[in-house]
Each structure stands twice: as C-alpha cells, then as structure tokens.
Design a protein that fits this description.
0% of the residues lie in helices and 35% in strands. Strands 1-2-3-5-4 form a five-stranded mixed β-barrel. The radius of gyration is 14 Å and the shape is elongated.
C-alpha cells in the first residue's frame, strides 16, 4: 500500500469503456509525516476521495481487486481515506 496526498484530477474524454464514470485522481506519495516523496501517479478513485486528502493506494494486480475494478485496465486505485497517522519512532 502507498500513502499519498491527492493533488489533482485527470479528465479523459476518450478512454477504455470499462473506465467510463470512474474518477481519475493525481496522487503524490508521502512519508508518514506528510513529506512528499516519489513520483506522481494517476489512480482510479473507489472511495470518493477529494483534493488534499491523504489516501491509501494499492497498485498492480491489487488495484484490479478494488471495488468495481475487476477486469479493468488499472494499475493504481484509491482504496481508503486516511483520518490520522500515528508514528512511534524507536530510539537507537
């Protein structure tokens, strides 16, 4: 799973018919503290996420197991909206 922040949307007037009526979001992976890391990715929204929200994303074959994505040509899907993250760092 990938923790990411929603930073934008994608509008595609022509796309695979199995993606019609699915919202496409641009997400930027973040570390547990919210600091951006890695490249942007486009993910299909399965949970009605919105701009600025921190989300959970699955990728690869797991994305096709998300709700309503069976047999869809997707590589990333938003499967959860994160309310809070708690990190307890261990001291060396």
């Amino acid at each position: 799973m990938i923790v990411a922040k929603i930073v934008g949307t994608v509008v595609a007037t022509r796309k695979d018919e199995r993606l019609v009526s699915n919202k496409l979001l641009i997400a930027r992976p973040v570390d547990p503290y919210g600091k951006a890391e890695g490249s942007y990715l486009v993910a299909v929204d399965t949970v009605d996420a919105g701009m600025g929200e921190t989300v959970l994303i699955v990728s690869g074959s797991s994305a096709r197991m998300a709700s309503g994505m069976k047999d869809c040509p997707v590589d990333a899907a938003v499967v959860g909206i994160i309310d809070t993250i708690q990190v307890r760092d261990r001291e060396a």
